[in-house]
Amino acid sequence: MMRQRQARRRSSARRIKFALRACLALALLATAPGALHAADDGASPAGSPAAAPHPDVPPPPAEGVYTGPVDEPADYRMDNFRTPVPPTLRGAKVLSNDQAADLWNKDGAVFIDVYPQAPKPPNLPAGTFWREPSHRSIEGAHWLPNVGYGALNATVDASFRANLEKLSKGKREAPLVFFCLKDCWMSWNAAKRALEYGYTNVMWFRDGTDGWQELGYPLAEVKKTE
Fold first, then answer.
1. pTM
2. What is the full DSSP assignment across 146-191?
3. pLDDT at site 39
4. What pLDDT, on a 0 to 100 scale, did the predictor assign at position 55?
5. Which range of residues forms the domain containing residue 157?
């Protein structure tokens, strides 16, 4: 009888120790860098979809790598989109993380995410089902992918113009906030393009979803705006 009690106690202690280890592992996973905004390869740290990977927006330069000052170019950025960006955009207001959050909390602007859509991999085996990766962004934002390249074809350009017309309700003075990731030229290009379309209240959220998470705000799954 005594041995049975001792055996039950040892078994109970092992179960408690295992549960504690599992809780610790989950806590470490939840706080791991990039847990909120990892690339979506079909599964993400919390089991929820994340940002879809894209070849044109690779990871930014490693921390500590000196790149020197970045001047604002006269025209659109045509390549190397994930490199340090300038601190300014002529004609637009550049938003800090706190300024962007303040606008969002007051519902004071239309937030437009221009992160590009992940392309379908080439040469997939016949019969392979392709599921477009999901995308996570600022809650309530409108996702207009592929409008941040340096040159747009006629179809993408027309779609961008039409979506801006709809989102602004036809008002050129409507407040529009463009963003992507930190050190991502695509949001700079898109905001510059909106200015050239004639919009007069253009804002550029320079650090985008990276800056958003630095404030402690979560990201939400968004669908592409058609």
1. 0.72
2. T--SSS--HHHHHHHHHHHHHHTTT-TTS-EEEE-STT-HHHHHHH
3. 34
4. 57
5. 32-222
Block means of pLDDT (10 residues each) for the chain, length 226 residues? 44 43 39 34 37 58 61 94 94 98 97 89 78 87 96 96 98 98 96 98 97 96 90
CB 115 within 8 Å of CB 182: no
pLDDT of residue 99: 98
Domain annotation covers residue 15? no
How many Cα neighbours within 13 Å face the side chain of 218?
A: 8
CA–CA dist 189, 200 (Å, integer):
16
Nearest to 183 by CA among 60, 37, 34: 60
Domain-located, residue 3: no
Q: Could you tell me the CATH number of the domain that includes residue 90?
A: 3.40.250.10
Q: Please check whether residue 89 lies inside any domain of the structure.
A: yes
Q: Looking at the 3D structure of the chain, how many domains does it have? A: 1
**How many CB atoms neighbour CB 194 within 10 A?**
26
Question: H/E element holding 111?
Answer: strand 110-113
